[in-house]
């Protein structure tokens, strides 16, 4: 099929490269000329495992085109336009639809009556309704195909999804999107637009809720002197609970969970629903980060360490995405002069002090499991240190 992917961020680029690997013709357009320039030189615009490999893949190379100009795209015979632009939160916690608005302005006169507009951005139908109203596009041409890939394992998630969700008011258009994924073996849920987006939003509320539960449980276990790993294993071995996604951490972050939880709360409020559990997920995460900061300060004082070193600046392993990174929050909460960040990929960031070697007399905190190469480097450095403590909170 002929596809146009709008937005070469984490979702658009990975999805488009995945589809081109399945032999679809994919034209990418993004207003960020720097990103497009890099892609035309086969340089990844961000870090994602295997991105380099797919950019240099022979099949992909034959099927893709990157542009920063909508007029350079061949719009004739485009079967599907995939909209993958960002949908951040406004200060009011409502979703910011301005990026979608601009995209709709660009495509309304370029798409033809048979083109399916496939919305991969996370946006709920009520918010999108206003965007559609102010454009010439019809509701029937829109298909909601929410994305569930995780940064750090994005290609593997693209080719092995737990489910593909297609929300639509038009059966033929839904089928067209289904055909896009014919090379992928997955359960497919055909549903209406509202349900499709609620699958996405409520999944993104449940997952951080689970992480926050584990983190609150960790506080209780630590304060009572229990063994964190054994206790959590003992809980998760109950099949109704499960061990997947049950890892304690200094806090969770990222580009999606914080904004999507805020949006679920905002949608609920607009419907005058009282949802105390979901409403407290963000608060729980903030409190956990504060608890963790105090936990570190206490160890530092008790054991007379001079420095606290946080290892890993991104919001989790195997990505360079800094959006809502718990490391940045923790750094700010701890900021008393002797707090540093150590990272192999990042050496600078506004108002953060980096170090290039681990110092003596330090409380060293690995924020998330690091990749083997970095881990080996750190182990070597640690061999030369005296008076230090190395914390991996999830162990
Ligand atoms: N990042 C994730 O892991 C993830 C996972 C699932 C779903 N999502 C959802 O997918 C959407 C995209 O997320 P992302 O992380 O890929 O965003 P991103 O910020 O990484 O990328 C968005 C891209 O869209 C481009 N863009 C903005 N306006 C444009 C326009 N008018 N025309 C062309 N390009 C434009 C930006 O320049 C940017 O490159 C969001 O709604 C997000 O909630 C993200």
Task: Walk me through the structure.
The protein is α/β, with parallel strands linked by helices and 395 residues long. It folds into 2 domains: 2-191, 3-Layer(aba) Sandwich (Rossmann fold); 227-392, NAD(P)-binding Rossmann-like Domain (Rossmann fold, 3-Layer(aba) Sandwich), CATH 3.40.50.720. The chain has 15 helices and 12 strands. The protein has helices at 10-21, 33-40, 51-55, 58-63, 98-107, 125-133, 154-159, 171-180, 193-223, 228-236, 257-270, 276-279, 281-302, 326-334, 372-382; strands at 2-6, 25-29, 64-67, 80-83, 116-119, 142-144, 164-168, 188-191, 307-311, 339-342, 362-366, 388-392. The strands form 2 sheets. An 8-stranded mixed β-sheet has the order 3-2-1-4-5-6-7-8, with helices on both faces. A 4-stranded parallel β-sheet has the order 10-9-11-12, with helices on one face. The termini are far apart. The model has no long low-confidence stretch (mean pLDDT 95). It binds nicotinamide-adenine-dinucleotide (NAD).
What is the H/E order? EHEHHHEEHEHEHEHEHHHHHEHEEHE
Bound molecules: nicotinamide-adenine-dinucleotide
DSSP summary: helix tally: 15
Per CATH, the architecture of the largest domain is 3-Layer(aba) Sandwich
Within the CATH hierarchy, at the fold level, what is the topology of the largest domain? Rossmann fold
In percent, how much strand structure appears in the residues? Answer: 5-15%
Low-pLDDT parts are none
Give the tally of β-strands: 12
Broad CATH class of the largest domain: Alpha Beta
Rg computed from alpha carbons, rounded to a whole number of angstroms = 23 Å
